[in-house]
Design brief:
The protein has helices at 20-23, 59-69, 76-79, 81-84, 113-128, 131-139, 144-157, 164-176, 184-190, 227-234, 258-273; strands at residues 38-40, 48-52, 104-106, 243-248, 251-255. By secondary structure, it is mostly helical. The protein is globular, with a radius of gyration of 19 Å.
């Protein structure tokens, strides 16, 4: 295979750094699966007055949160997409992934799934189509939708906000060299999961989101990125990096040297095998 995947059971050419924190028991808003924070007017029976959508949530998580906030049967918000008339880019083909902008939305008496989704998309359009992002995308020879797609990977992969620009640069460097992105986050999206472990079998799944097997960007964003991730996608940090791995929280290592990256991965795997009480 020309993807240069080492013959090991667990593959980590690039790492979704953020999920490494989950293994240590940390809770991150962008990876939470629970209901989002709801601002309550009073205790007990009072209905929520606002809905917070964290950065990095997938569309499915947003739909579930809207259903719960509006006390609707599960699946109602997803079904409402057909009549929501969302102002999405042509490239999105009706899929709002990437454009459900993370923010806090008021829940008035007349709030419906359609009004909430429309608000999210409208704010996304305001943010993404403004001069800084649109011009930045054009400067990097891509359209805004492609920039948002890159930003969604950056949001999922970067362990910290400080790493976002470097992760974006890895994506650009790989694309420019004709290398597959090999991002675990895209496989997690295809399998609707979040995990530290990507196996060799995982990298062989048939999916347009399998960035180990398919070249270029995934067909859509893989989550709904925040403003900082989008800025990183259009202004990546200068560097020659092609690989990165988060060894532990606060220690993400970027390199252009595959041999050095293998050593970093070996250190990561060794730490994963060490009982937490000894780390």
């Amino acid at each position: 295979m020309h993807f240069n995947i080492p013959p090991r059971k667990t593959i980590r050419l690039t790492r979704r750094g953020r999920v490494a924190l989950i293994a240590t028991g940390a809770v991150l808003a962008g990876t939470a699966v629970a209901v989002p924070l709801l601002s309550l007017g009073s205790e007990d029976e009072a209905k929520p007055t606002s809905l917070m959508i964290p950065e990095g949530w997938r569309a499915g998580q947003v739909y579930d949160a809207v259903d719960k906030a509006l006390e609707l049967p599960p699946g109602t918000t997803k079904k409402s997409l057909a009549k929501a008339n969302l102002r999405l880019p042509v490239d999105a083909e009706g899929n709002p992934e990437g454009y459900l902008f993370p923010a806090t939305y008021p829940l008035g008496e007349k709030a419906t799934p359609e009004t909430l989704l429309s608000s999210m998309v409208d704010i996304a359009n305001q943010k993404f189509n403004g001069a800084p992002i649109a011009a930045g995308a054009q400067r990097n020879a891509m359209n805004v939708y492609q920039a948002v797609t890159i930003a969604s990977i950056v949001q999922a992969e970067a362990a910290t906000k400080a790493d976002m620009g470097k992760v974006a640069r890895v994506i650009f460097n790989r694309l420019e060299r004709g290398m597959p992105l090999q991002m675990d986050s895209t496989i997690n999206y295809a399998l609707n999961r979040s995990t530290l472990k990507t196996t060799l079998d995982d990298t062989r799944i048939e999916s347009p989101y399998n960035s180990y097997q398919r070249m270029g960007l995934p067909p859509t964003p893989i989550d709904n990125p925040g403003e900082e991730a989008v800025r990183a996608a259009v202004t990546p940090t200068p560097g020659d990096w092609l690989y990165f791995v988060t060894i532990k929280p606060g220690d993400t290592r970027f390199t252009a040297d595959y041999v050095e990256h293998q050593r970093n991965v070996a250190e990561f795997n060794a730490l994963q095998r060490t009982p937490q009480s000894k780390t």
